[in-house]
Request: fold
Amino acid sequence: MTVYSKPGTPGSLVTFKTRYENWINGGWVKPVKGQYFEDISPVDGKPFAEVARGTAEDIELALDAAHRAAPAWGKTSATERAAVLNRIADVIDANLELLAVAETWDNGKPIREPLNADLPLASDHFRYFAAAIRSQDGDHAELDNDTVSYQFHEPLGVVGQIIPWNFPILMAVWKLAPALAAGNAIVLKPAEQTPVSIMVLIELIGDILPPGVLNIVNGFGLEAGKPLASSPRIRKIAFTGETTTGRLILQYASANIIPATVELGGKSANIFFSDVAQEQDSFYDKAQEGFVLFAFNQGEVCTAPSRALLQKPIYESFLSTAVERTRKAIQGNPLDTDTQVGAQASNDQLEKILSYIDIGKQEGARVALGGERVDLGGDLSGGFYVEPTIFEGNNKMRIFQEEIFGPVLAVTSFTDYEDAISIANDNLYGLGAGVWSRNGNVAYRAGRDIQAGRVWINNYHHYPAGAAFGGYKSSGIGRENNKLALGHYQQTKNLLVSYSEKPLGFF
Amino acid sequence: MSEPASTATVVGTITVPGENLPRVELSTTAVSTLRELWEDFGPLMFHQSGGCCDGSSPMCFPAGEFITSDRDVLLGRLDIAPAGAEPQWIDFWISAEQFEYWSHTFLTVDVVPGRGSGFSVEAPRGVRFLIRSRLMDSFA
Reply:
């Protein structure tokens, strides 16, 4: 067990600046209007740094820098850009613990997660896209003896990216790596709930990138996000968040006739067929763990397995064992490597979760575990902690239909295969799902029949670079985490070349 | 100049065709906050969000900023004006597909301290609109 020191105290790996300016053109730039807001740590509910409250004027400065940088960056060779991405990956690896402490303090997540998941995945993600761009070919077609069609990948130019707060560094990297690999310059706006950890990262990697290639403007959605998303000076906008802002982003994109990719979350079903309990073996243990993964990152994951569907014959036994397993989850100081459940990212997130627990009870769902806010006492007393909570109910309840984004699981039963698929698909969203069965045929069919972009079979919450990630239905448009994402950041240039000396003969 | 703080909730009009019960209301704090926001932004609207991150938050925009369509349901109209003053109507919208799953619940827009995301107009003030829910009487 290790307990990392609180940032700014003796022995800590991180001392935050008292104030973070915007990062524009390769340096710190004060916000034009001179305004700042406080970043609050969910670990203790206290402010720990001031952050630039960017506005349209700052977005314009960032766009100026990006437009100056884009032409040269877009013409660098894939070899050079891949080398840059690999150097960024090396710096992340070399500063893994420092970045993990910063991420935990900004977001509230238990530090074992950024140490073992967020940051190793982030560096690997840069390496994956370094490899992807190196190995990407254009294509050509010999249309006839003298006519050849060539297709080239070109960068879009300057793109905008708006980042969520649940994995502040990793979600930024999911968007940055393909955009940089493809040769674009970027203006990125972090979430206002978690604006600092990405600034700690840019401090480390800023000098690897040419000035202006990556610009970061902090601020509120209305004041900084909207001017970015609606700007006629971007050639693409990428967003992860909720549906109303997603629609607004698509609306702004339509006004500028530019592409948009939006990842808008889900309400992922985690389906356990009876045969998982055929033996009380290691696989059963793995399936039990797969159930408890709803509490990973305090449930603040777009693909959180927040609906568990248990087949009737194993419902009671599987659930009672899983409830006991969940009860043992250690909730505590997020900087302690033994902690398994940390803090919710913000006060309003905490309030939303409590309001969902309230409506769940009103709708008649049974609380099998938890259901309350937690006061961890001492320095952590002001932090935003919620008990891992398990409800039993039915799929028509609100707690089964909307992503609560908290450690709250809604459990129901199903009779047979058709019933399982019907319940899983009876939802607005289609981002993730899980299927657990010892029967490969059943698992395969279920995986294909569930309307979701990512179905984990006999595992959950793995996000390896290379596996395409994105939504069906109202979960959004586009794919990340795979070379397909390059296509969202590239224009296609077709050169249609005639090598014939003869006129067409039409005129 | 700030508008007088509200001492009463505001219940929305009945706008869903064929229904005879209201579906949405504003807490007193929400009314006071909205009166202040109206001074800064002019007429306002709500659209109920879903999905991840700040999903389930009621997003407040300058009226007309968010384009609604026939795939949205007008859940109610809320007049935040003090008694006797010119009406200040705020339309509250939800997508039709989301309404299907939410229709058994009555929504109260409240305000909590927080730092919401999205493009909602209240966020820079350090507060967030929050939905509290109860079962509609017709479903209870």
